[in-house]
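User: Here's a chain of 269 residues. Predict its fold as tokens.
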Amino acid sequence: MALDTKPQALPLIMVAPNGARRTKVDHPALPMSITETVETAVACFEAGAGAIHAHVRDETGAHVLDKDLYRALLSELNAALPQMQVQITTEAVGKYTPDDQRKLVQELKPSLVSIAVREMVPDDDTHTAAEFYSWAMKEGVSVQHILYSAEDLDRFFDLVENGSIPGITHQVLLVLGRYTDNQESAPEDLYPFLDRLKARRSDHEIDWGVCAFGHRETECLVHAIENGGKARIGFENGLWNRDGAVAKDNADRVRDLVSALEEKNISVL
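Assistant: Prediction complete.
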């Protein structure tokens, strides 16, 4: 493939149904097994989500970067719902190294993968990461770069400008807040990111989305979409609908966002 190969365009809504941390103790409808994740994907697609951000869990329920489990999940999702885009994660959760993350992606060669810049490039030695990002582009693996702060976004642009991250079209996910207990994101958390995007995007095409935490998740995501972004929603980040009630399941969260967008005459198609 040519080096200017563009990543796949992401849909307006991606569901993140489980993440790496929550379990059924947090919500009984949170999917843990492959079968539950596939069932959740089908329900969320019917509710309006065009993609799924997928984690896999081992027999104890722990988040793992396991190529065999991912291969099984990708196969079952493709059989049940071939029209839905599937993005795997390389999230480290404090136990996986950049080498572990690269190995998973290189062995699996998924169509879509999310990778945190601060995890893949933890220091100023960018050579190995640059080789990996170039390999991913050549192989047609679309990388969504996870950015936890405006400073992360600045660093992302630095890596793009020095060639460590190749290409002119990029996917990024802007994280409004942190994976901490009782984290509550607010729409105004987006403003520092928007300022950086306006100042630094230059001639680069940035396909950006947002995830947010807590009771105002829907409000934050609507605000992002109104400003030209996309949304990642689901139990990985928030359990509550905009009326304050705990959602029935992940599809309920998707419907809550779709309803809020329709009220503003924004189509999810």
